[in-house]
TrEMBL record:
Sequence segments annotated as region (Disordered): 1-25, 187-206
Annotated protein name in UniProt: Integrase catalytic domain-containing protein
PANTHER family: TRANSPOSASE INSF FOR INSERTION SEQUENCE IS3B-RELATED (PTHR46889), TRANSPOSASE INSO FOR INSERTION SEQUENCE ELEMENT IS911B-RELATED (PTHR46889:SF4)
Highest rank taxon of the organism: Bacteria
Sequence ranges of Basic residues compositional bias: 10-19
Pfam family of the protein (one): rve_2
Family matches, as InterPro entries: Integrase_cat-core, RNaseH-like_sf, RNaseH_sf, Transpos_IS3, Transposase_IS3/IS150/IS904
Residues covered by the Integrase catalytic domain: 36-199
Length: 206
């Protein structure tokens, strides 16, 4: 990068370290900050973030696979109702079709502790896991993804409308992050290429 005159986008430092929740319908922490998995669809990490536009906040919920860092489910809306996270995890379940026993890890926000969300996980054979109240480190993998998204896209300019930002986030997720963005933790492969490499290795060893 130095020889080519390329400079990385710099991350803005913010004072957000935790979230509060008044809900009591929680699940145990099955992850304990071990955000690794030997194969896809063993551990998903989920969270919600706020993206600012001139019209107000656009809320983004994501579900990320801990093995490949791939965003396997996402949803955006102008509200924080439970439907937001239901749409995100519903997309992940529909497209990935995980086997029973997958762990879904999130914080203790009211959306994730809602009865409807818990029922959706149970019906799909997914185990709920939640970090402690007020500890962003218990959901560090999701926080890291959001920091990357904001550094590489959101903070680069201002956004007059929610629709405009929504279209750009969609393009970032599906057209760049999953398919083309390289990760040092993945041997400088994109999430999609890394998962394909795992499939190839599994077939070769069969």
């Amino acid at each position: 990068m130095r020889l080519s005159g390329i400079e990385g986008a710099h991350r803005r430092r913010r004072g957000k370290y935790g979230k509060r929740s008044t809900s009591t319908a929680t699940a145990p922490d099955l992850v304990e900050r071990r955000f690794t998995a030997e194969a896809p669809n063993k551990l998903w990490v989920a969270d919600i973030t706020y993206l600012w536009t001139w019209e107000g906040f656009l809320y983004l919920a994501v579900v990320t696979d801990a093995c490949s860092r791939k965003v396997v489910g996402w949803a955006m809306a102008d509200h924080l109702r439970t439907e937001l996270v239901l749409d995100a995890v519903g997309m992940a379940i529909l497209t990935r079709k995980p086997a029973p026993g997958l762990i879904h890890h999130a914080d203790r926000g009211s959306q994730y502790t809602a009865y409807e969300f818990g029922r959706t996980l149970r019906t799909s054979g997914v185990l709920a896991s939640m970090g402690r109240v007020g500890s962003a480190f218990d959901n560090a993998m999701a926080e890291t993804f959001f920091a990357t998204l904001k550094t590489e896209l959101v903070y680069r300019r201002s956004w007059p409308t929610r629709h405009e930002l929504e279209m750009e986030v969609f393009s970032y997720l599906e057209g760049f992050y999953n398919s083309r963005r390289r990760h040092s933790r993945l041997g400088n492969l994109s999430p999609t290429d890394y998962e394909q490499q795992l499939v190839t290795q599994k077939e070769a060893s069969a």
